[in-house]
Specification:
alpha/beta, 6-stranded parallel beta sheet, 3-stranded mixed beta sheet, 9 strands, 52% helix
Length: 410
């Protein structure tokens, strides 16, 4: 892969990334505290004299009555709650605007997000809207959210996004369909409840997309130059936990009373999210967000398809070879002294997992005429936000897109 950036632009980007990497060691990150039950959630609000809460959730949560225990806990503590679920699969700025109006008019005092990553992201968006002036696009980028958000407790129902502990939210612009990222220490949820039983109703494919999303978070965080000792430790523990539990979770039907693998997968997702708070994500996520802006494809599925191809490119870099080998070691995939061999073992394992969850090797929706815009989106996001191990330009991203396009030899 040839990099087409001129030398001066590459120098400026590298300098910017190095400065951000240095700053990451000193930024005081907010850490999400874990609660152990729905009663703990109600007690946490009661202790702070919060008596009215808005629950941001999805229609499937209501359909399967998954929030029943939460409502019972609130009723016991005489906490009034409003349930809001009027969101699409990718919550938009307009949907979050409406939810924010409802929050203000109801005089709610705090937020609970109950759902997957997009629902938790939506709740972060609502929190930004009700506490800060202006639309969400105003806060695109890093450190632009100035005011503290309402107390937010997140209850994830997937084991992938880690949004319950991250300082980022990804929102879809209603006008352009473009996805943009807001990063701020102020939007990290205050508390989270990792309830393993919430994963019982996950379809096989969604479970797979979630798990591979968490794996991508941990790998990208570990590879990025702004990772810290603590973030790398979290990342390696996350990848090891995923390796040891992902298939156990897939086969729970044979042992329906043992949900511990689900607990471990939720913890892995949490650790991966905590890791990329400091280490950040990178080229995979930036390209994934660009693709999702054009096609209605699950985020985790896109990441799972891109991950092997991106790692193949990274194995051409000595810096990345060493780091990928360390990841392979943590996952017990390092079988030889040859670091590249071990990196290929990791790629093979990812492809095997993708096959287990029926994740294809290509993205059938891709259209060549969209490649320029998708690649430009990826470049603008990665270059401005992430400390990636390799700096890709627009043409580099297009080469990856051609690799995951059906009939890429045509």
């Amino acid at each position: 892969m040839k990099n087409h950036l001129n030398s001066f632009t590459r120098f400026l980007l590298k300098l910017e990334h190095r400065l951000l990497s240095f700053a990451m060691h000193f930024i005081p990150f907010k850490r999400t505290k874990l609660l152990s039950s729905y009663n703990d959630i109600a007690s946490t609000f009661k202790a702070r004299n919060i008596n009215k809460v808005m629950i941001i959730t999805g229609r499937s949560i209501i359909k399967f009555d998954m929030h029943k225990e939460l409502m019972e806990a609130f009723n016991k503590q005489n906490i009034i709650f409003l349930i809001y679920s009027d969101f699409s699969n990718d919550p938009t700025t307009k949907e979050i605007d409406y939810a924010s109006i409802v929050y203000k008019e109801s005089k709610a005092q705090a937020l609970v997000s109950f759902g997957g990553g997009s629902i938790i992201d939506a709740a972060k968006g609502v929190g930004i809207q009700v506490s800060n002036k202006g639309g969400l696009k105003k806060y695109k980028g890093i450190f632009k959210v100035k005011k503290k958000l309402p107390l937010h407790i997140a209850i994830p129902t997937t084991c992938g996004t880690g949004s319950e502990t991250t300082w980022a939210t990804v929102i879809k612009d209603s006008n352009s369909n473009d996805k943009f990222t807001i990063v701020s220490n102020k939007i990290t949820p205050d508390y989270a409840f990792l309830n393993k039983f919430n994963l019982k109703t996950l379809p096989k494919n969604i479970y797979g997309y979630s798990a591979m999303d968490a794996l991508t978070h941990a790998i990208e965080s570990y590879l990025n130059i702004c990772s810290t000792r603590k973030s790398r430790k979290d990342a390696l523990l996350a990848v090891k936990t995923i390796k040891n539990n992902i298939l156990l979770g897939l086969n729970l039907d044979s042992k329906p009373t043992d949900y511990e693998p689900y607990n471990k997968m939720l913890i892995a997702s949490y650790l991966a999210g905590r890791s990329f708070n400091r280490g950040m994500v990178g080229n995979i996520h930036s390209l994934s967000h660009g693709i999702a802006s054009y096609y209605n494809i699950p985020h985790g599925k896109i990441n799972a398809i891109l991950l092997p191809e991106m790692l193949k490119e990274y194995l051409k870099s000595n810096y990345c070879i060493r780091k990928i080998n360390e990841i392979a070691k943590a996952m017990d995939l390092a079988t030889l002294p040859d670091k590249i061999h071990n990196g290929l073992n990791l790629i093979d394992w990812i492809l095997t997992m993708n096959a287990k969850f029926d994740i294809p090797m290509v993205i059938k929706e891709l259209k060549v005429e969209d490649f320029d815009a998708i690649s430009d989106h990826a470049y603008q996001e990665a270059a401005k936000i992430y400390c990636t191990p390799l700096i890709f330009d627009i043409e580099d991203y297009k080469e990856i897109l051609y690799l995951v396009k059906p009939n890429n030899n045509d």
